[in-house]
Amino acid sequence: MGKNIAETQQIFLFCDGGSCQKAGSEEVVRNVRAYLRNSGQWDSTHTIKTRCNGRCEDAPTCIVQPNYWYKDLTPQKGLEIIKSHLEHQKPVEDYLLYQDEWSEIKSEKERGAFTPKPFSIKMDSELGECRITKGFASDQYTYPLFLYLSENSPYSTLSLANRTSFSFSEIKNVNYSQKYTLELELAEETIELIIAPIDQKNQDLVKKRIAVVEYFEQLDSLKKGIRLKNKFGEELGLIWLENHAWQYCLEVQLKGIKLETV
Ligand code: FES
Fold first, then answer.
1. Which Pfam family would be a valid example here (predicted)?
2. pLDDT, averaged across the chain
3. So what's the pLDDT on residue 241?
4. Are 109 and 57 in contact (CB under 8 A)?
5. Is the CA virtual torsion 256, 147, 246, 243 positive or negative?
6. Confidence of residue 260 (pLDDT cuts 50, 70, 90)
7. What is the Å distance from ligand 1's center to 189 Cα?
8. CATH code for 5-99?
9. Is there a contact between 95 and 108 (Cβ–Cβ < 8 Å)?
10. Which atom of ligand 1 is found nearest the CA of 17?
11. How far is Cα 199 from Cα 238, in angstroms, rounded to an integer?
């Protein structure tokens, strides 16, 4: 039988994402759960393992309702935190990363936000002279990109290696339910793009994975587009963009960088 949520008075969310696991999250959770079992608080307390909480630099992390964020957990800190909330209804301030009404988070390991480099002018062997910069290649960007183009930009086109180009209006559905494969459903076929981390030993997949996303504007034609490459620099596809889709790319995919060049 699952947890009786009606009897639960406090919930603790322990991150079980990859960075937190590497930093020892499992031992933290095991200790906390053992304490709850032996102290008779198992039924009234719920501990949940979550996927990444988005603060990997502070791993292992946990969140306590209503909005206490903890960092750099150890088994000992985990116990102190849980006891403080359950027995005294208050947080352990020294271990907090953030709580409501703080104006900023307290992290000794804060990483600066990554922003794309400004456009630079290059003579490219395939594109000619152009302004060009790299965007983000993670699936957290590429999936929204394909979704946006299929929903909003029917005249943008995509050409893939060894295939004739087609417009985004021909895409009936963009499906991202597989582990690392984005599926573009056309009337007669489904095209698969590899957009998320894959087993690096599988050379076939490594060659197909979109690892580099370049945004460019040709200087002579003023045509704008996106070039998709694998990690070896081999071209996987080329997207030619309508103007409003280019604006979307500057604002969302490139986080508002200007078209100026350096
Ligand atoms: S894996 Fe835990 S915060 Fe990212």
1. 2Fe-2S_thioredx
2. 94
3. 98
4. yes
5. negative
6. low
7. 38
8. 3.40.30.10
9. no
10. 1
11. 25
Q: Is the CB of 78 under 6 A from ligand 1?
A: no
Pocket probe for ligand 1: among 53, 69, 97, the residue whose CB has the most ligand atoms within 8 Å is 53
Residue with tokens 């985990």: 78
CATH domain 120-253 topology: Heme iron utilization protein-like fold (3.40.1570)
Domain segments of the chain as ranges:
5-99, 120-253
Pairwise CA distance, residues 247 & 228, whole Å = 18
At 166-211, the pLDDT tens digits run 999 999 999 999 999 999 999 999 999 999 989 999 999 999 999 9
Residues facing 183 on adjacent strands:
175, 192
What is the rounded distance in angstroms from the CA atom of residue 90 to the CA atom of residue 140?
36
| Residues contacting residue 181 through CB under 8 Å, at least 6 positions apart | 192, 193, 194, 195
Predicted confidence band of residue 128 (pLDDT cuts 50, 70, 90): very high
